[in-house]
Specification:
There is one protein chain. The chain is α/β, with parallel strands linked by helices and about 200 residues long. The protein has a single domain, classed as Aldolase class I (TIM Barrel), CATH 3.20.20.70. Helix 7 links the parallel strand 8 and strand 9. The structure holds iron/sulfur cluster. Iron/sulfur cluster binds next to loops.
Amino acid sequence: MDTCVYQIGNNLYVNMTNRCSNRCAFCVREQSGEYEGYSLWLKEGEPTVEQIVGSIGNPAAYHEIVFCGYGEPTYRLNEMLQICDFVHICHGKTRLNTNGHGNLIHGRPIARELAGKLDSVNISLNAPDEAEYNELCRPALGGAFEGMLAFARDCKNAGIRCWFSVVDCIGQEKIERCRAIADSVGIPLRVREMIHNE
Ligand code: SF4
């Protein structure tokens, strides 16, 4: 059976889709079929809400339920929001790790739909300008960098606790330029090790 949830530390990660609008050079998808011993490619198709809820069990047993996995979770927006309701009913906490393309994927601003459902959102910034973003993240969608920044602003304006992340492999000079962008949007920047998708 496919791995639709996997535990790392005190968090439980939900793996909903193989679809992604980026093809980041540093992504685990580009390196192997496994992460931390879990095989994350969904060979049997995308899991249903019922399958995921059944696999989560008791959300309150974890620090957070994190929508992350091997693809971009906002492709499955409706299903993700249904699972958020389940997690909250069970007194758990929710987080989304996203490439920030949700508005572009759905053709509308989605942050207001996330408010109250996701307790926090981690948006991958990854590069300090469009050209470097396109080179590193190889987006399939036009306007991906600006779209990601707009999504981040929307999340902040919708009152969602959110932050940008960058991978440490981009180097200190780019990290500082990313920090300036994060400051201009008004949300924090976190630097993470180059180990995982978002
Ligand atoms: S790192 Fe995230 S956004 Fe980039 S290709 Fe992997 S899953 Fe997609």
